[in-house]
Input
Amino acid sequence: MYTARIIVLIIALGAGGIAAYLVSGGAPDNKPHLAEPAPQLQTVDVLVAKSDIGLGQSVKPEDVQWQAWPASTASSTFIRRNERPDATTQIIGSIARSPFIIGEPMREQKLVRANGSGFMAAILPTGMRAVSTEISPETGAGGFILPNDRVDVILSRHEKNPDAHAGSNDVINSETVLSNIRVLAIDQAPKEKDGQTNLVGKTVTLELKPEQAETLARVRQSGTLSLALRSIADINIVESNADDQTRKRGDSVNVIRYGVSTPMTAQK
Output
């Protein structure tokens, strides 16, 4: 009986000793370690659009603001505060050659300083001309041609048919005289207004090279001009040369004899 008490006492003392060891810190530290702070991301202040800026819109002070931008992704074309601290006042009054969306970095390549010139003169690339000609809903793709679209200019004219009998109608020939031409404006609208999907006007302004401007001035006196809207995928297509663009015979003509229309293949 006495021996059993001694054994129990020894066990109790051993358990107490183990507990004291654990409490004193002998056990592994289970406390969570604080994560090391992440390295600070390097940023640079760049000038961005504070609101949407449309094509041809003059930049106002409330349209721009400085915004922190990751330095590793900041293009050299961005306007940086450490390089141009006065840029917010320097670009005021510039005209947007291309639209800006909110938050987009401002770039000099998309701005032009009018210096007193009108919008059209400001946005015209060097060496190009802005030439206007009359259109109608029938000759302007029903009003679905908008500024910055690409079009072909087609000339249709009446010609005498040497093989026709007396009293027969003339032959109507059509040919593409200008290809892949940029539309600058419809009437006085250099941009789409109020979310319209079409714009019906009486005058279209085209961006032309000097020799193309001469061609348009010549052919507009020869017949009726129509605009054929091209796919947006054709914007970057490079035509073979200017001469081919200015006189490209159409693939077919519409011959009308005695009121009967007959399509025929045109001679190249």
In short: The chain has a mean pLDDT of 75. The two ends are 129 Å apart (CA to CA). Helices lie at 2-26, 87-90, 119-123, 210-219, 242-246.
